[in-house]
Amino acid sequence: MSGDHLPLQSPIDLGYALPITLNISPSSVAIDWDSVVDGEIRMGDHGYEVFFDGSTATMDVQLPGKAQATRFELWKLHFHHESEHRISGVRSPLELHIVHKTNEPDPFKDGQTREIYAVIGVMVEGGGVKGKSDETLRKLIDWIKSAELTESTDKTKSTRLHDPLDPNDLVPFDSTTPITDQPLWRYEGSLTSNTQKPNGGFVSWVVLQPKLQVTDETLEEWKALKHEAKGSQDLDRRFVFFNPGKSSSVA
Question: Hey, how many other C-beta atoms are within 10 angstroms of the C-beta on 90?
């Protein structure tokens, strides 16, 4: 084992993981995005990220070994091109990560806390029609261009969202229904911020099977922006669960 090895790395190939089919309880994974959120767009290490201010949007995830779900607050979102997660070797042209975070007592450091994360992965593809999702992504692109972020190498430069963003516009299902009604994968992994080296972080991943469809024009514009993606990592003897869901996705 190399000295810089960190276990439970992400992303993984969800198909080759031979996931265990399990009906996940709505109390084990749930989102509550009942309000629009303000924030700003920044240039990060692997592309443009939208950071949210004082968000009251939350996600509940039951972590391994916990009797009840842990509540995470919506923190940021960003994209990767091509998708970081694969399904039996197949990558989508774009993958959206909707990142939530919270703090918990650090089991290895008395009296200290550590940040942990819950991330929803959404595959994005073209061939769609102009709807709320496409409109929201178009606005983000326009704001990036109007602030000339695409021309800047200064990672401290940012631009405020011109209007609040509704995270419900960026998932391929009616979010008034439980997220567990959708087919999805669930596993424990890491951050993927550093695409060249192992990543730290304690991340509970929820990757949706239904894809978010946008117009071909919008997809190509997002692909043209910088979105670094990390390659598939070893499963490391992890269990991956597949929730078959109860309903089909909506356009």
Answer: 11
pLDDT score of 15 more than 90:
yes
- Contact status, residue 38 vs residue 52, Cβ threshold 8 Å: yes
Mean pLDDT of the region 131-152: 89
* Structural domains in the chain (count): 1
Number of Cβ within 10 Å of residue 248's Cβ equals 10
Does a structural domain hold residue 196?
yes
Q: Are strands 20-21 and 241-243 parallel, antiparallel or unpaired?
A: parallel
Is position 116 within any domain?
yes
Whether 9 is in a domain gets the answer no
Distances in whole angstroms, Cα of residue 247 to Cα of each of 84, 177, 189, 192, 231:
25, 10, 27, 30, 31
- Domain CATH number, residue 155: 3.10.200.10
Q: Are strands 113-125 and 212-213 parallel, antiparallel or unpaired?
A: parallel
Dump pLDDT digits (tens) for 163-184.
999 999 999 999 889 999 999 9
In whole angstroms, what is the distance from residue 93 CA to residue 122 CA? Answer: 11
Show the domain range for 97: 20-243
Confidence of residue 247 (pLDDT cuts 50, 70, 90): low
Candidates 194, 178, 203; CA nearest to 29 is 178
Is 90 a domain residue? yes
Give me the DSSP letters along 169-211.
Answer: GGSSS-TTS-GGGS-EEEEEE-----SSS-----EEEEEESSP
Question: How many whole angstroms separate alpha carbon 30 and alpha carbon 238?
Answer: 22
**Torsions phi, psi for 193 (to 5 deg):** -60, -45
Over the stretch 186-221, which tens digit does the pLDDT of each residue have? 999 999 998 889 999 999 999 999 999 999 999 999
